[in-house]
Design a protein that fits this description.
Distance between the termini: 9 Å
Number of helices: 6
Strand content: 15-25%
Structural class: alpha+beta
Order of helices and strands: EEHEEHEEHEHEHEEEHE
Amino acid sequence: MQQTTIAAASRAPRPRLVTSIASTPEELREAQRLRYRVFIEGMGLSALVRPDGLDCDEFDEHCDHLLVRDALTLQVVGTYRVLPPAGARRLGRFYSEGEFDVGRLNPLRGRIVEAGRACIHPDYRGGSVIMLLWAALADYMHRQGCDYLAGCASISLADGGHNAVAVFRELRETRLSPPEYRVTPHLPFPYSKIEPAAAPIVPALLKGYMRSGAWICGEPAWDPDFDSADLFVLMPLANLDARYARHYGVEEMAIAA
């Protein structure tokens, strides 16, 4: 995979950021430590606390792990976990199948990259890191010869689920997939029993998916471990390619071999 760098010009220069794919056990642990900080510590999920400070599961060894690193400090400041078709075949399933019946997508399995565990260090959430992760993800999909990106996008239930209901109702009207791509949650989030928030606040990752041409593929699942309502999203790579420059400013990026 090509290495991607970005250095933004401003009065106060931002860190130089570099993307790569984890290639050693230590690089994988760096990604897992960042995920633990963001998901477990940042969300206060005491039930998932581990003494080693790593967020890890059986999927990690079958996935590739996109990294964004601060080239000055060498700290990993962003990561995205991607499961290629070969990894899904070895596992016998996608990660999202723990939450959804995706049987209607069986004809596409060999053309889907599943992405998840996207997270960014709290000190680097100004836009550049997610831009680089999206660029690396698009490049990865081209190299895998895959036409679709799939995954779960979470909405916090910290407010009792009101915002999740409002977000789902809005996206159901504007970004619902064609019927042939619909999935069914194993544990549905009871959105019909909860009053929606007055104005939906779409989480940044989900907003990025929608801006890049993704669909939501049905009703949300409830993830009690992460206290979230999860939407299954599916994005044709053609949509990402067509919209990427406009939404993520790819023209500002410098690609180096």
